[in-house]
TrEMBL record, chain A:
PANTHER family named among the record's database cross-references: ANAPHASE-PROMOTING COMPLEX SUBUNIT 2
Family to which the UniProt record says this protein belongs: Belongs to the cullin family.
This protein's name: Anaphase-promoting complex subunit 2
Listed Pfam families: ANAPC2, Cullin_AB, TPR_ANAPC2
TrEMBL record, chain B:
Chain ranges of the RING-type domain: 34-77
A molecular function (GO) term: zinc ion binding
Superkingdom to which the source organism belongs: Eukaryota
Any Pfam family the entry gives: zf-ANAPC11
GO biological process, alphabetically ordered: anaphase-promoting complex-dependent catabolic process; cell division
Protein name: Anaphase-promoting complex subunit 11
Keywords: Cell cycle, Cell division, Metal-binding, Mitosis, Nucleus, Ubl conjugation pathway, Zinc, Zinc-finger
Family (UniProt): Belongs to the RING-box family.
Localization: Nucleus
Pathway in which this enzyme or protein is active: Protein modification; protein ubiquitination
Entry's Gene Ontology cellular component terms: anaphase-promoting complex
Native species: Carex littledalei
Amino acid sequence: MAMLCDPEALDSLSEDAIAGILQYWAHFCDLTDSLLSQNVPSCGLDSQLGPTIATLCDHGLASLLQDHFLQSLEEAFKKSAVKKFWQQFHSYCDASAIEKANFHEQDNWPEEILSKSLKEICSEKRSQENCLLVLVENLKSFEDRIAKRESEIEHPSSQLMSRYQLMASSVLLTTLPWDFPDILRIYFKKKLEELNSMIADGDSYELEINIHDSQNDADFYHMDTSMCGCNGLVMQIGKVVSDLRSLGFTSMAEDAYSFAIFLLLKSKVNELAGDDYRVPVLWSLKKWIRAVPLQFLHDLLGYLGDSIEYEKESLNVKSPLASQPSSFPGIGIPSEALVRWQLRLEYFAYETLQDLRIGKLFEIIVDYPDSSPAIEDLKRCLEYTGQHSKLVDSFISSLKYRLLTAGASTNDILHQYVSTIKALRTIDPAGVFLEAVGEPIRDYLRGRKDTIKCIVTMLTDGTGGNSGGSGNAGDSLLEELNRDAENQDGADFEEDGGTDEKQAWLNAERWEPDPVEADPLKGSRNRRKIDILELMVGIIGSKDQLVNEYRVMLAEKLLNKSDYDIDSEIRTLELLKIHFGESSMQKCEIMLNDLIDSKRTNANIKATLGKAAAPGSEQREMNISLDILDATIISSNFWPPIQEEELNIPSSVNQLLSDYAKRFHEIKTPRKLMWKKNLGTVKLELQFEDRSMRFTVSPVHAAIIMQFQEKPSWSSKILAAEIGMPADTLNRRISFWISKGILTESAGREPDDPSFTIVDSMADLNKNGLASEGCQLMEEESERSVASVEEQLIKEMTVFEKFIMGLLTNYGTATLDKIHNTLKMFCISEPTYDKSLHQLQSFLSDLISEEKIEMRDGLYSLKK
Amino acid sequence: MKVKILQWHAVGSWTWDAQDETCGICRMAFDGCCPDCKFPGDDCPLIWGVCNHAYHLHCILKWVNSQNSTPHCPMCRREWQFKA
């Protein structure tokens, strides 16, 4: 061995000298063994070791000597300390998963075993270090002597200590059981939970909800005082960490406690955020981070002596979100490590909270105005983490899964859409994400038939509006939108024509590029301002369709009024005018104006006619006077097509109506009044022997029931002839009275001619009450005064049916586009073709269902 | 059983009882209004000439005022005089 080390020296050596060296070497080995076997190096050994080492070094065997010594140390360390150390954990590592869970539940596990075994192994290591020190000292004294003679010699002894450290930790790491990192994590987790509950118990950490105090730094300063109570615990942890460090487990320990901190943070986020969206949690979360994990880290680093580096640079590393300079309670200038930790923890907290909120975004938006704190939190989180795409993806998938299904009503979808718009507007004022999220909803809604109707109802009907909205209950969405618009007007100015140059310059200066996520295909102009109404109209396609639908609904509403009170309609119309322009609402305005005129005319006619007809007329006898009659007189050109039905109304009323019309003609010569007898409302009181009942019904129903005054029982056909309407219509309409239990139906002489009988007394009513419930379904469809938009469309399109048939005869087959364009090209004069592609398509599908044409692979052709 | 009518709210529509559908000048419906008006009916009445041709009042007035010599009915070229 020695020869290999120093062959040149060997050549010059005599046999004797070699023998001498070998003798010394053997002596050294013995000394080493005895030194290691007894834990405390004694003076005797020390004195013997000195000369031996010196002699061996003289012969250039210093490095050999060091290697041997280290090797012996390693053997000893491996044999005794390491084995013993790992044995402590064997019972856990060999355990099955279930048994491990039992370990986890034990209170003092792994704390007790860990601190004990760490203590043992560290003391073992320390004693070995002491042994090593003896060697080092001896080597040093030898080197000092050498150094006087030769100046350029290196000091190998100085590296011995670090070589030892490396050896010890590598021995430990190579024998490391698989589960040891887990044990450490569990240890830190338990300790931190203990610490957390200690701090939470001590009143220093209060969950303050008020976010507006957030600028107030003073809140923090009282926290450090109470930390003293926890110092014992931190010391304990610190001891374990420093022991682990000395064993070379620095990174493993750090990994373990950061794991534990993040785990704790995560559970804290979950605990704070949970399923309650009505409280902002971000602020309390931040506060908690400072109160618990950061305070702990500060104390820990302080204990380990890491935080003493007061570097000036650290001041520049600030949390980007911290509204105040990162100053810490009772610490003054934070160390760089601590600032790093703070950033890391805050980012993690934001990300966790964001993920939590994004996962529940659907529910959050369902409760929208109430859940705005959660939205606000989410906004701040996203500002920090920048993971907007995550939001978009997850929200779209939950929308598709939960909202855009056949089971959801169109109204619900629309409400959710509006809430989504509002919520996302807070998160992202530029509307880029809304664009992405809204697309699937819009596409889906376009496929639903009742979308337009629902939108219009939602916009105009007070009760249909968002009941949970911030506004008063009963406000329509339109009102809300308008209020929002008024509020916003001050804040963001639109590009009005009237803005002066200075304003324009300011606007230009405020320009910001679109976010990276923006779709460059869609111009950035239209996302400047998010107009909910605009988006709703966007679903329908054009505002004309919406206006048309509104007109039909308005007509329906107005025609069924029994008074002239149209204040709310006027208000709605005014609001719609703001959004859609006066000209498109012109017809609706005329309709409302008709009502106002009618009120005036009605009063006028009644006043003049009342006087004229006052002296004893037959109407008096019939117990019907002009007082009961009111009329709505419409300008039919401006109303949607009105459904007319033949109807013979009772002669007494008929007489009254013709008197009224005559008077109208006198007052408004040469204008004439044409009654639409099936329209309007009638308030009736049915007087039976034992009771009376009041109803508000349509004239048809009134005419039917009044026939039963003369005769208690009618056959369907005779009654129909009397009233002047087809029997099947009558049978449909009469079900109203049957459902109310006023009439009963019984089989007549012929199978298709049932007879109806009045139910006179309560006893009969009860008897028949149950049987009649099924009939109620039928009345829903029966009563419409105005043709629906679809019916109108079909009516208007039938004109073009000939064109389409001829076109298909000529071309053979044609695509939808081709038919559309051809019609547009040729039908320019009366009647003008002004339908949309979509409308044409629905008309063509009607023709298909009538088996006039057929479609294959997108090509329409005549049915053969 | 007796039926007592408490209120009968009827619906009717008015019409100028002109023979023609549309005004010969503006080609708008008589029951509508002339291009300058917003509301039909009282705001935009019809007027008959002695020749029994009817126009929107505003339309025929515009016509009459634009004629330098004696105005004629745009339809039958007879001298235009308002029917009393």
